[in-house]
Specification:
The protein has a single domain, classed as Up-down Bundle (Growth Hormone, Chain: A). Helix content is about 80%, strand content about 0%. The protein is built from 16 helices and no strands. It is globular and about 60 Å long.
Length: about 400
């Protein structure tokens, strides 16, 4: 079958794989139930999510190095298997009431699976679409953003209904669904014939990792991620706290439903942001796009510090997630245009370690504030987010837009 007709199928399967992986972004759906059911603190529970994101970035860096050697299919299938296994181990941990096993299963095993699987369809799609880099890589990672919508409104509620008050069975069911579906989608991934040999060039990535441009890209990416991922991990509890202030008579079930709705709606914006900002960066340039996202989010976070209206709160959260997702939609083509096709898998994988660092700093910072300040934690968290985004914008001003031929012959 001609490559042109195959490439959209591969991009679609990459998007489906990312949809399965994106279930991790629905973690806040389980945050309060786990705290209440097992009497663990918010900080303790949040470590499962932080470990998952932390190991995701590290594994993505390793995956970028292994990708030319093993190819996208083997790497993605292995990652999907580990991702599903992470949920199954989490189910066992909840059955045994073991917090360390929850961290090890969901966080370590699941996180490694996420990282190996995440980097693969993004780098592979970029090879198939040299003419639409931003658009197609944005489409692929859009699936990751939509994963929380699928989880919070379809998979988790269905399993909750089938197994009421049985979190171990819910986690086991999720593991089977996302693990098997992910492995099926991963089986379709492969490199285009024209670039299969050229992407294994011997150009050394080391000097580029130490370059001023790469370091600034990493820092800007980190600042954009840390603010958004802190919200992702706690958006449901934060929304519930706000609704409690507005209407103290609301039942816990109603509050939980409001929180789940915010997860679902914001995940749409997270997904769309990857596609829309990724496509926009093809026209505006990746650096300009990052500057717009960072600057406008500073304003949103400042307003979030004092907002008392749940509807405005939800709207601002959705915009932040639009820009958060946008960073993941723009960065693959940013790396590709700056460093070239041969270095893209390695350097893109390495730059995802910013996701690891942000996945620990953001959620743990909010968890610490929430355990100590309760409902007042939101104001402090949003103030910190505004400061980090402002820092990211200032760092972006030190960068220069670069473009390198990313054709297979480069």
């Amino acid at each position: 079958m001609p490559a042109k007709s195959n490439r959209w199928l591969i991009a679609s399967m990459g998007t489906l794989l990312q949809l399965c992986l994106g279930s991790v972004y629905a973690w806040s759906y389980f945050q309060n139930p786990l705290v209440k059911t097992y009497c663990w603190s918010h900080t303790q529970v949040a470590w499962a999510f932080s470990c998952a994101i932390g190991f995701l970035g590290v594994a993505a860096a390793v995956g970028g190095v292994l990708l030319p050697k093993f190819g996208p299919r083997k790497l993605a299938v292995t990652g999907s298997l580990l991702h599903g296994t992470g949920y199954l181990l989490a189910a066992l941990a909840l059955n045994l009431k073991s917090l360390p096993l929850l961290w090890l299963g969901y966080g370590v095993a699941g996180g490694i699976g996420l990282g190996l699987s995440y980097v693969t369809p993004v780098a592979t799609a970029a090879k198939w679409f040299p003419d639409k880099k931003g658009l197609v890589t944005g489409m692929v990672v859009m699936g990751f953003g939509f994963g929380a919508l699928l989880m919070s409104k379809v998979i988790a509620p269905a399993l909750d209904s089938a197994f009421p008050n049985q979190l171990p069975k819910v986690f086991a069911g999720i593991g089977l669904v996302v693990g098997v579906t992910g492995m099926v989608a991963a089986g379709f991934l492969r490199n285009p014939p024209a670039t299969a040999a050229s992407t294994t060039g011997d150009e050394n990535a080391g000097p580029h990792l130490a370059s001023r441009q790469f370091i600034l890209m990493w820092l800007v990416f980190f600042c954009n991620i840390v603010a958004g991922i802190a919200i992702i991990g706690f958006q449901s509890p934060l929304m519930q706290d706000l609704w409690k202030k507005v209407n103290p008579s609301l039942s816990p079930a109603t509050l939980a439903a409001y929180g789940a709705t915010l997860i679902a709606v914001s995940s749409v914006f997270n997904g769309l942001g990857r596609f829309l900002w990724g496509g926009a960066s093809d026209r505006l340039g990746q650096l300009t796009t990052f500057r717009i996202m960072l600057a406008t989010q500073v304003v949103a976070f400042v307003v979030l510090m004092k907002v008392g209206n749940p509807w405005l709160f939800g709207a601002l959260i959705c915009y932040v997630l639009l820009c958060y997702g946008g960073g993941f939609g723009v960065m693959p083509s940013f790396v590709l245009n700056t460093f070239g096709l041969r270095l893209m898998p390695v350097l893109y994988g390495c730059i995802l370690t910013a996701w690891s660092a942000a996945g620990i700093v953001g959620p743990q910072g909010v968890a610490w504030l929430k355990d100590r300040h309760g409902a007042q934690a939101a104001e402090y968290a949003f103030g910190l987010g505004a400061a980090l985004l402002a820092l990211g914008f200032l760092l972006s001003l030190l960068m220069t837009a670069k473009s390198r031929d990313s054709s297979p012959q480069s």
